[in-house]
Batch of 4 targets.
Target 1
Amino acid sequence: MTPADMDFPARSRAALAQPTLQRSLQGMRRMMPALRSAALAGLPDHAALRERARESRDHALEHLGHYLLEYERRVVAAGGVVHWARTAAEANDIVAGLCERAGARRVIKSKSMVTEEIRLNEALEARGLGVTETDLGEYIIQLRGERPSHILAPALHLGLAEIGATFERHHRRERRAPLTEAGEMLVEARAELRAVFQAADVGITGANFLVAETGAAVLVTNEGNADLVAALPAMHIVVTGIEKVVATLDDLGVLLRLLARSAIGESLSSYTTLVHGPRRAGDAAGPREFHVVLVDNGRSALLGTSRQEILRCIRCSACLNHCPVYTAIGGHAYGSVYSGPMGAVLTPAFEGLARTVDLPAASTLCGRCEEVCPVAIPLPRLLREWREDALRGGLTRPAERRALRLWQWLATHPVWYRFALGAVVRALRLMSVPAPGGGRRLRHLPWFGQGWFAVRDLPAPQGRTFQAQWRSREP
Amino acid sequence: MNTARTAMLAVIGRHGAPPAPAAPPVMSTEIVWAERARLFTAQATAGAATVVTVPTGAGVGPAIADYLDGARLGAEVHLSAPTRAVAGLALEPRLSCRAGPVPADGATLVSGCLAAVAAEGVVVLASGATHAAQAAFLAATHIVVVEAGQLLESLEALWQRLRALPAPLPRQISLVCGPSRTADLGVPSRLGAHGPLRVHVILVGGRPAAR
């Protein structure tokens, strides 16, 4: 059974049983929140900067048509061409058409979630083009025929042993010893990809931002691969979502200050590159053709709705890195290109709620995602909206609906509520066991509790309900 | 009141003459530069770049030669985006300067830049007639020379500088804050993923002669 055939609970169970993935996620839980906090603490006024970032994204979205036209005007003035694609199929046709017209055979790419979303690689390969991903993580999963498990670290689910074995299988070279050391793997991948870079006919990148003021497509990487993809081939194509546009360079500066700090806990990524059109007359080098494909694919349908706020997202992945659900099961369990809280909000909008009804449910609504979001997207509210839609649309499981009806009845009958809750609290207290660090914890429960306690435990109730304690408080 | 005014001005007297026209006092450029250089160095070093300062353009050649000697990288360098201090390197006896595109991996590139931003610790490279964007990514070692007037305080100052350029802006403008690196092979990050393994910045300034 492949992940695509499984449902969300089955994929989650599979993820919980993968030791390599679990080790990576454990590392993420331990490191990423501390790195992000330390990086943001270096800013003089993080709260004000975040508010300014939210405003600049909202402003661009409120005037999206204006800024996209402004961006297009600048790109055309610099000698580039802007294409508009309503759907994934239209976008893929445009890119494939450009490659075919250029007589291209070899395409190189830098990491782009939009091209994952529209499945551009499959579309190009179906037309006989060779496509090579150049971001190291994307390259590794491309060799393995897998999908990204994190929007920034696509090979997060793999350990060094698996990566070494993958390189041994795909890189033709004489070996005296197995490939086990990360430094050697990097040298090998660098050499393999250098040859691919030099031979490519077309380079495809995404864009982290588009700047209407100057017509810039902004590429942010630590590896520098996007810069080579943009510089070396004779044609550069940018494929990106319509929501990526910002009004001015000043807006860009605000968002750049937050992006890398939120994403990886550093003040800026190694490379931030602004691309304006093709090479100029007299330039030493650079592509002769420059194209931008603006992809809608469900985005414009969110404009003017209560879900428009998700379009502020700058794909920093802070919400994934801080999510108790994502950091337990990783990205593949979500079964979609975008995972974690932002993915659970975005995917139902793109793929329909009927197919993705489990994703908004895969959240404890603890609120950390909203707290750490650099553009203050109210992710818990948006997740709850999808849940309400699912309930209204009859998409939830019958057992879930029955449980909610029972809860509703209890919650509206205070006497029964107090009686039932008091009984449950006492029963849970009786079933708890002393914990090594002091206090008591619940380790097992019969019936439906078995699934919950298979992979976690809970602190035991103190013995009395909140209401009982409130009534007996000192005046 | 008028009596008091007259009496006081009679005492103040000769201090009441208007001043001769003169420029208002400004912060010395050396102090401003030194503060920016300190901030730049802290930020760029955090991004795994190395930074040295030299007082005038004449110090750039020896500084590069010393760096290459220390890292055992040979004496051969390729020049790109030649600002005044970079162009002057052709006369440095301890360096062997090459023109033309950066060849195979392992090369050392010495380039000028469009600007550097102290608050972020980045150097800013712009493609054009004398600089191919890929040069800074194909080289294994990139040495960037930042002249005194190019060291800006913030990203906002950089945007102002870009706005002052004729439209359209250069094809590829890169803000570089250190060597190429990747975390895709686990933690800690490894340097030299696609681009340079080493980024070394030489800040020229601090003395009026640099202007």
Target 2
Amino acid sequence: MDTNSRKKELVKEFSPMIEKSSFFSNVWILILIAIIAVGLYAFYLQLINGHEITGMRDNVVWGVYIINFIFFVGLSYSGAFISGILHFFKTPWKNSVTRIVEIITVLSIVIGPIFILLCIGRLDRLYYLFMYPRIQSPITWDIIAIITDLVGCFIYLFLTFIPDLAILRDSPNLKIPKWRKKLYKFLAINYQDTTEQRKRLHKITSIMSKMVIAMAIVAYTVLAWIFSLTLQPGWNSTIFAPDFIFSGLYSGVGVIIIAMYFIRKYYKLEKYIIQSHFVMAGYVLLVLSLLFGYFTFSDYFAKWFSHKPADVNLLNTLFGHYFWQFIFANYIGVIVPLFILSIKKIRTIKSISFAAVIAVSGLWLNRYLVVVPTLETPYIPIQDTRPEFIHYNATWIEWALSFTGIAAFLLFFLLIMRFVPVISMSEIINHERKTNTKEDASIKN
Amino acid sequence: MGTKIIQFVVITLAIALLMNIKSFAQENDLKNYKVRFSLNNIKQPDNSRILETSFIATNKKDRKDRVPVFEASINFFNVADDKEILLGTAKTDKEGTAQLTVPANQKYITDSEGYINLKAVFDGTDGLDYEEAELAVRDVFLELNLEEIDSVKTVLLNAYTLDSLNTKIPLEETEIKFSIPGFISNRPIQQGTIENGEFQFEFPENIFGDINGNVDVIASILDNDEFGNVIQRKNIHWGINKKIETESYKLWSKVAPIWMYVVLSILLLGVWANYVYSIINLFKIKKEGAELNAKIKK
């Protein structure tokens, strides 16, 4: 196999994604920028007026910001986990999804922590966390874990990008601006795809892939501990850490399926992202829906069985004020994906993607129900009985900033896909190289 | 098309099934419940009196299914012959309990036998019938004296009632219990029978008090047919000083436990060392590439 000509072929195949931007994608980018602009205005208002203009009060001190934080960070950790696992697979089908997973991993860990900053009433005191850290505090552990994970994910993403960046650097026919060519050259760090360089890069990528799996488990456990080590009804549970890990994976696989569906459809990648990708991801989602359902049931069952007044009060709130949200998050969010994914006849790309949408929405709502109802039913009775102090309702500011997070995630995703092909070219070449070597060896024998 | 129909049917069935869960759970019928309305009385150390009613509907078939009557207005009366004095009104709480504290200076009217007749009345609503409960108690006085007699810590109790001429009439054959306050419930230290209006015992050793060694001694006549519930208590410096031990290595202490520093350092060192290792290798890749480029140029 002539590697160089194969590289040229692949660059030619993926160049429309890199060189041109369609009218549709430009409009889409403008919409996303408009949403972000509204969000920035909302942030300005929050900064000037304080948390008074949000729904957060003395009792319910956490709202949709922290829910988005848990959701995005969970997405990142599950992405890191899946990406690390995929690295060990030798099959060609992984090449079509690894980059999607890696981009989701890095973008989520960048967007997620921004939401925690929005929860802080006095941002000017943020540096206190670094100046006077308490090693005993789970918050400190979480800060350390997030920073470590962020750096690790960036390094891992960069390692997987290098061979493709080198291919793009060595493609003079690409119709791209000069600054991009310079950027490719800078980021490709003189990578020439020699055997020595390939071995070295493979070695460190392998170590990093193992590392990100371990880090994802540790970091998401630490995040779960922020809740479970707090004496609040519904949080103080030993099952929280594994529950968070599986629910994070559940949402992560769901978002990967949704991303695969849209990327396949709008970039016309039917050749690379095929039905078996969706079916395999669907199987994983099926198993995870069972695990998520099992953990959720175990958690609530133990609370119900204990008959502790605070837990009973929390369950009454969940089955009363939050009845429909609870049903959607914990019943529909589990049963519907379970039904769709377990019946072979209805297991199509569209239905699997629909199941993923239900799973992800249910999971977000589940996170909401973990945070808000608990804060509304504390152990110590609420003193201030004004309705806004008893019940939390997110304001337009919080929703605007939440949608800004999603818009920023999508915008950066689009921009990264314009910078580097969403299907890893180097992985395709590596696979073909290995196949040819095996074939040559069998012919010789 | 067929797939879409199956999808629609499955989702609709799932939603319909889930919607029904709540409607089954909501079915309650008042006819299946028997209302229990009772009155209780506690005379407190300061001679004030707590009047307490319990207003609970119990399922006739399932005794565990108890529904407290909430926000019911209860009137408390002192009655004798034809007279009826309103002592006060209280509303039931979430547990179905209404409490009224009658001050110590309240003058009660008594019947010919010297009993205070108390009555609690619920006037009824559209859904609930009229309810009343009565109670007759004799006013009893407990005098608690804590003295050291010949270096022996002694608890002395005098118990009596007053006749119409305010003459003390000692109590006879009445059960009495002594206790000290505990974390969850009171801890009993002695119990016996009052004879000739008196009861006395030696206060046990090794009883923990508060930080200053003070301890409350509580004397109580409980659920007595004639006197109801009567409580007397007195504080004395007879307890052992409770030592508050400061334990180190707590999460709220100034310094974290050493193991935490060790574990965190090992974890972080391991991870960050790997980052450094990766970056060093990236530089090596860059260097190798630069050397290769230089060779090609030559």
Target 3
Amino acid sequence: MNSLELTQCIVNALLLSGTLALVAIGFSIVWGILNIINLAHGAFLMIGAYITYWLFTLYGVDPFLSLPISMILLFIGGYLVQRYLINFVIRAPLLVTFLLTFALEIIIMNLAVVFWKGDLRSVTPSYAGMGFALGEVQVPYVRLAAFILSLILTGLLHLFMTYTKMGNAIRATGMDIDAAKLQGVKIGHTYAVTFALGAALAAAAGSLISISFPIDPTMGGAYTLRAFVICVLGGLGSIPGVMMGALLYAFIEVFSGIWAPSLKDAIALLVLVLVLIVRPTGIAGKAFYH
Amino acid sequence: MLKIENLNVGYGEVQVLWDINLEINKSEVIALVGSNGAGKSTLLYTISGLLQPMSGSIKLDGREISGLPADEILHLGIGQVPQGRRLFAGMTVKENIMMGAYLRKDTERVKEDFEFVLSLFPQMGERLNQVAGSLSGGEQQMCAVARGLMANPKLLLIDELSLGLAPIIVENIYEAVSQVIQRDMTVLIVEQDVLLALEQADRAYVLDVGHITISGDAKELMDNPTIKEAYLGV
């Protein structure tokens, strides 16, 4: 690998890390606050990607403009799923919620295959293939925009959690649920909003991914897996931790894709196992959201 | 103000409180004392709606509140400073204190109350942006009381304020609580330290393994031979 290829890989990894952080943060808040490992996270992401695809294909809506639409729709969907489905088993052991979200993932994915077919599809706005060159390193516009939007959304989430009443209620609930109840926090509503936020962030990531990569109904599982690994790498608990985890994961994925493409997922999971052995709390791990 | 009648509470099959009768009048300071494991915290959790009673009634100003969710009970005017402080460890002191005002919509009054609790606990003012988990035990208790006051409840339940704290700090915090009482708040103090509680209170109830065994005027109870022998060690 010469220095040009190396630089290109670093740029690619950096750009990828933004979107991956966005995928993982939604997964992480649901895990951290509700103690649910949401295996349907990737399915929400896939729906977000299809919302962008259909709005673009049927109505010519610019894919970046469809981002808020897919976020709002998945926010509402996520709220309802939590409030009227998962909420009934929220006190059950982790395995029960695990199975429920797993089933949800399969149902959503299969419905998507039935209604939208299993074909690979692409969102191709006029600027899709365009980019600029930094020296000889290529930077595609859509990936750069996805990277910047991911950082903006992550920043907005941080501001929401820190400065709004609802954000504080969510953090308080994650730290001490009974104490939060004693301050008047309605746990059912707070959990549903948290889950809805997770779904909306997954949708945003899905919309952004659909502009850079082909999509199909089964795309979600791979992202759920990535989100899981990133949360373990970064430690469950802080937005900066998740971002660091995403950055590390993106580098592993890009470089193993060059050197050993067929072992890409195996290498990522090997790193996961090593982290769990050496540092089970992750890189910046803390117990809950801060 | 608060009237508890024939209340039975348990965890699953295990009954913890039997046939509790307790009454709190407006502007009174009531002490609920008893040894470790007597069921004091269980009673407070039940009043606040964190536990559902097996049977019996809890009335606030004549309205039945047993079985209501915790947020509605707080909204109706019963706040609690729970045992073990239960601060949100990763949040700042200011965020913790403001969580107490979570249900309030009267923004101007909330600001005034915030200034008031800072005047009660000046140390909190110096530590507003510090994470609550990093405070000393005494400071954490101050923060917990400040948070409880921010709800501006009609009735404040304070659970084991003195636990694990140096006497001088306990005295400081009770000093602040007595200032609040003068502002017309009704308070139920739960204490393992019986003498301390009786000194603060107008009336007191003694809870012994799930039953209320003695009740009456706090000053008279200090001279009650049973209490002297069992709790005051004289």
Target 4
Amino acid sequence: MSEPGAAPERVRVTGPPRRRTPAARTADIDDETRLGGMYMGSLLREQLRLAVGVLSVLALTLGLLPLAFHLFPRLADVEVLGAPLAWVLLGVVAYPTLLLLGWVYVRRAERNERDFAELVSEVER
Amino acid sequence: MSPGLDAAPGIVAVAVVTIATLVIGTWGLRFSRTTSDFFVASRTVRPRLNASAIGGEYLSAASFLGVAGLVLTFGADMLWYPVGWTAGYLVLLVLVAAPLRRSGAYTLPDFAEARLGSRSVRAVCSLLVVAIGWLYLLPQFQGAGITLRSTLGAPTWVGPVIVGLVVLANVTSGGMRSITFVQAFQYWLKLTALLVPGAVLLVVWAGDSTPLRAGADGWSMPLAAGGNQGLYVTYSLIVATFLGTMGLPHVVVRFYTNPDGRAARRTTLVVLALLGVFYLLPPLYGALGRVYAPELAESGRSDALVLELPRIMLDGPAGELLTGLVTAGAFAAFLSTSSGLSIAVAGVLSQDVTGRPWAGRRLGGVAAFRLGAVVAVTVPCVVALAAPNLGVARAVGLAFAMAASTFCPLLLLGIWWRRLTPPGAITGLLAGGLGSGVAIAWTLGTSRPSGWADALMGQPAAWTFPLALTTMIVVSLLTTHRIPTHAGRFLVRLHTPETLDLDRG
């Protein structure tokens, strides 16, 4: 340890620059160029389309149940395996359906992100 | 019921859960070394542990007691509550989970401020977090009162006071890391506490060979009574639960403990599975209650169904043992949900109220948090003692409606629409908050709901959510000059995978 008075001047130690190459397409996103905006726009559109798709399936299955029972009240008398239809659908079938939708979503969303990462990591030639 | 031998299993159950909660909390504290551990468990919680913790925190008194009671009283249309509470996580998964984690926000006001760069938006959000948190805490405390009265014969005020004190002890001493272990433990405790008695009671029912009493009185209709009004009420409930989950203050905090956006998605998927398994059980109690304990619905004590059914169906020590188990589960439900909510409300209070300089003096971080926690727990606890009982699941339903018509549109537009502006967000939050607030006040003041007005006010989400969403969009379009300059950069942060080397602002 040197004396405090005679301490040498501080030297800033830096690593190599983190950008692999300035020509990578990530630079377009960082600089918010029109091209970068298009890359981001395509990712957002893909992910939003996927989300809306999953939610539409949800709305057209579970979401239509109240309307179906409202229009056809006789459905309440239908029995499946000794239990009323509404109980089988809402009490049991709904949960695996939700899980399946979630699983499909996670797989596709991760694939969209991989595709995006590959696209923007390519170096322009 | 007179206290005495009858009360023994309940007392043992409550004592064991309380001690286990405090011991696990303390054991977890040994792993908490840094400030980051304290607040966000250093963001290293694995999806499965984190999902158990989310499940433990999310499954409240409304899920554990309320659903079975509602199903007993009203029938299949009440199955929409558990389905909606699970589907809410699917909606959260596809629209919010990964971006919310990537935003780096710890609370909803943090997200709003980071996204829109406005202190006023933050203030409105803080106010709403406190309102929703208290609305949600109220039925937890009231449920604790019901539980201890039903199993121990204790006066109604004992439950809220005990839960309030334990939560306060846990919240003020433990950090997020230790709470994560506690909440995860409490999910599995709650599941066991419904699963084991449920299986035994099912065997008893099969031995009795009593038929399930479906009948023609609308019990197997997944639709509220009253024709078109019933259809409206059911769809409005669906909107509130499907969209409200993402706006609950204690849900958001949990996402921050994930390592990255991808883990946030996977955690949510595991949560969907855990909730699905749990929610198979409460309707079973409702159906069995229909056969063995219809008098509970008639006397207005349906919330106690889960607790009393084992004794009604089984005599002797077996019934007592199962009663002890369900009491333990119910008590865990109050503790975990109340802890999560209290942390969320106390966090906001300490950032925006108790941590502010008052009369020239300013409290330190920990002191401000503790004072915030005391306020966060005391207010709903006192109101729970004074206010009439709303029915556990119904009060929680109103909290969901308010979350769906305030934070849900904010998150949706904040994450997916670059042109949201601070004035748009504020007017939208106020429109949704006032609309649902007025509706809740109206509902609390109406003893016998009838007619369209009461239906619209009793389940407001179907009109307050679109109201808030359109207000946000229209006002934002009118104030395009106020679009935050960093909006584009912020969307890059929300949506790009962390593996990419990008400037995220």
